[in-house]
């Protein structure tokens, strides 16, 4: 039951079959290129092997169960995935995620099939690396932040309208309200995105695609996109089915992944991220440092 036991067992069995030389085993720290450019030969091979393994995994993802290694004999499969570690976590996820996603589909009024278009890998990575306190993060994702509208549910005598206008003060409204704090939030959000794109050497075409879509993030019911079968239109249409405002919460369409990978292939000056999932998860995570519009007087004094 040890993690990656299959690899260790296969190495051991293979070593027994090699009689022409003496083998030595040595642990080599991984990802040393993150901290230094002076790498030993072993470290360079380690980094190269890790990159090849990641590339192979990305290219061979399919609905076909993975084949076990010759010395492995048996393996735990959940659905179409072979599980090689963190067994309790994986079993718990397999049991709990389907009803949770069904609940989210009903809550967000997603049509059938919309849930499958969400890049859940990027979403989970963004959540794991998020610096927002866990309770606040859950409230943000499920629209339970302390806006006047939410607080009025437990205090009917309290005001539920925005401090600056007559609309109900929901988080969605604060994103699009014309008050000075919300306007500054939208401006700061764009600056944070631009800084992230510079830091990650994002291809120009993908940078423009995200920034151009930003105006749709704050609209409760954005206009229908043109029904054209182009990559950009498919990206916009799929994100619209999920919800543009949900982009800020990490619910992003898988089409963004496709657009980013294609942009990196076409842009010779770009520096593609070693992990597309990590890059996409970094977009909502990087926006954490933007001052939330909940800082307006209507929510800080209620």
Question: In terms of topology, how is this protein built?
Answer:
Layout: H1 5-16, H2 41-59, E1 76-78, E2 81-83, H3 87-107, H4 120-128, H5 134-141, H6 148-154, H7 171-176, H8 180-199, H9 204-213, H10 231-242, H11 254-266, H12 276-286, H13 297-300
Antiparallel strand pairs: 1-2
3D architecture notes:
The chain is an all-alpha fold. The protein has two domains: 5-51 and 62-83, no CATH class; 118-300, no CATH class. The chain contains 13 helices and two strands, in the order ααββααααααααααα. Strands 1-2 form a two-stranded antiparallel ribbon.
Query: Could you state the order of secondary-structure elements as H and E?
Result: HHEEHHHHHHHHHHH
Number of domains: 2
- Beta-strand portion reads under 5%
Mean pLDDT: 83
What general outline do the C-alpha atoms trace?
A: elongated
Order of neighbouring strands in the sheet with most strands? 1-2
Structural class estimated from helices and strands: mainly alpha
**Considering DSSP H and I runs of 4 or more, what fraction of the residues is helical?**
40-55%
Rg computed from alpha carbons, rounded to a whole number of angstroms: 24 Å
The main pleated sheet reads as: 2 strands, antiparallel
Q: How far apart are the first and last residues' alpha carbons, in Å?
A: 52 Å
The beta-strand count equals 2
User: How many separate helices?
Assistant: 13
Uncertain ranges: 295-302
Tags for this model:
302 residues, mainly alpha, 2 domains, two-stranded antiparallel sheet, 13 helices, disordered C terminus
